[in-house]
Amino acid sequence: MAFITESHLRALLSQGLPNPFRLSDGDRLTPAARDFLHDRGIPIAGAPVVSSTGGGDKLKPKAEIPVGVSNRHIHLSEEHVRLLFGQGYVLTPLKELSQRGQYAAKETVSLVGPKGLIKDVRILGPSRGETQVEISRTDGFQLGVHPPLRLSGDHTDTPGIALYGPKGLIVIERGVIVAKAHIHMSPGDAARFGVAHGDRVSVQTHGERPLTFGDIAIRVHADFSLDFHLDTDEANAAFLKQGDYVSISAGGSNAARAKG
User: Fold this and answer.
1) A Pfam family for this UniProt protein (predicted)?
2) How far apart are CA 20 and CA 22, in angstroms?
3) Other Cβ atoms within 10 Å of 6 Cβ, number
4) Handedness of CA 34, 35, 37, 42 (dihedral sign)
């Protein structure tokens, strides 16, 4: 067993500290060393935890799945891009996202519900076959709409909303959802974790407020990059931020499969 001290970490600064900082089996961080990493925003992977029953230290699962926190956003159909921004308009990529080929666009619109308005909601590209609005439950209270928890693309029995753009207004009859948390994986990632597309797993966080998220859907595609996708309400509850790491704590090939 190796004890890693703050002095040891300071000595590594000139070489660059690994991010995340990975612990080998049996390694332990002193409290000062843990604070040193935390103050620099460096997550700890494979950190030991102390049993609340006094049974000594045990190694929790390696925290190796990066967190992607998703703020409210909109996927527009090509028709709705035209209606909101003008004939022949093409979305302007602003920032690449973690999933290949997807980007945050420069363009934003306003959402208007029965009780309120939210301005400057980001459009994500490229355009899709059907417009989808993804908000948090907290956003729903502000807007006066109460969308169900759904995986992307499942619009059955979902509410609609009004969208205001610089060139027009549209009202969608359905497509507003609270996105169900899920993990994107490539086929290689899925093989490594022993899961398949449609599996449901539990995910363990390892921050200041450790939480277990259950019924997390696994989504596998050759274009996907490893990413635990959750919304701002969920991230805030668990004290998670973009770039933190989590681990799969239960589930896999024998877990219940997501419909579709």
Assistant:
1) PTAC
2) 6
3) 16
4) positive
Shared-domain flag, residues 32 and 130: no
Give the CATH number for residue 202: 2.40.40.20
Burial environment of residue 24 by CB neighbours within 10 A (0 to 12, 13 to 18, 19 or more): exposed
Structural domain that includes position 32: 3-59
The answer to whether position 258 is within a domain reads no
Cα–Cα distance for residue pair 172/39, rounded to 1 Å: 45
**19 vs 71, more confident:** 71
Nearest alpha carbon to residue 245 among 17, 44, 40: 44
Strands 245-251 and 200-204, by their bridges, are antiparallel
Rounded-to-integer distance, Cα 8 and Cα 217, Å: 40
- Lookup: tokens for 62: 């390696």
Q: What is the mean pLDDT of residues 112-128?
A: 97
Maximum Cα–Cα distance across the chain: 67
Task: Please report whether residue 17 resides in a domain.
Answer: yes
- pTM for the structure as a whole: 0.74
Instruction: Looking at the structure, tell me whether residues 166 and 186 fall in a common domain.
Output: no
Total domain count for the chain? Answer: 3
Q: Does some domain include residue 205?
A: yes
End-to-end CA separation in angstroms for the chain: 46
Predicted confidence (pLDDT) per residue in 85-109, tens digit: 999 999 999 999 888 889 999 999 9
Look at residues 139, 161, 179 and tell me which one is the last residue of a structural domain. Answer: 179
- Last-in-domain residue among 179, 201, 232: 179
- Rounded to 10 degrees, the C-alpha dihedral 11/14/19/22 comes to -30
d(CA 72, CA 119): 11
